[in-house]
Amino acid sequence: MLGGALLAVPVTAHATAAPAAAPAAATAAKAVGLDDPAKKDIAMQIVSSAENSSLDWKAQYKYIEDIDDGRGYTAGIIGFCSGTGDMLDLVEYYTDVKPGNVLAKYLPALRKVDGSDSHQGLDPNFTKDWAKAAQDAEFKKAQDHERDRVYFNPAVNQGKSDGVGALGQFIYYDAIVMHGDGGDSTSFRNIRKRALSKAKPPAQGGNETTWLNAFLDARVWAMKQEEAHSDTSRVDTAQRVFLKKGNLNLNTPLDWKVYGDSFHIG
């Protein structure tokens, strides 16, 4: 978007008329959203660096463990949890697509443990069966589907609505992955609401960097409300690093740290 008025310059018969907006338009054309396939893969790698200490996010379909954060089992490419409902939604969707799959028999137990950290009805074989399911291409597609439906697409859509680029859309995505988008004070929508009391997004006339810093301040506050998320390095030594460099389009190369580990995408 061009700011300021264009000066009227007389054009002589010998002048070559070159559109003044061309460079800006060319730059704008290069700016792509996080839903661009290459940018999306970068987003998956950065989240995986925080969730799994690895850039190889495609190796995480089989991942499952209880990380003692009060959410029961955490599993898969985005940390679906048995205690927060998204794992239940995933297994229900997978069972709709593929009835009789190896995880379908756990649906009654997943409904009972929803909202708690209980393993009742899941142990002792749920983790083995999860790993077995992860060998099925349909289960991988189901994980991709639920990741996009619940987390990725809402974050990107809100980012585009707020007028932020790929970095801002990623910042939203990482927040919604960790905090969900429920009604509690630390949810994504309430992190955004907290930021709105300090700054405005570009779509409301605000400065993009100022807005994203305000959002990250609100995100850090939310993380510190919960002991399991009190280490804020995924913001401090990753997202803020990109923001301080002015990398609003999340262009490579990228270098960052999470929980003390260094990562690089060339």
From TrEMBL:
One of its GO terms (cellular component) is extracellular region. It comes from Streptomyces vinaceus. Keywords: Glycosidase, Hydrolase, Secreted, Signal. This is Chitosanase. It is found in: Secreted. The lineage of its organism: Bacteria, Bacillati, Actinomycetota, Actinomycetes, Kitasatosporales. Aids in the defense against invading fungal pathogens by degrading their cell wall chitosan. CDD domains: chitosanase_GH46. One of its GO terms (biological process) is carbohydrate metabolic process. GO terms for molecular function: chitosanase activity. Residues 1-20 form the signal peptide.
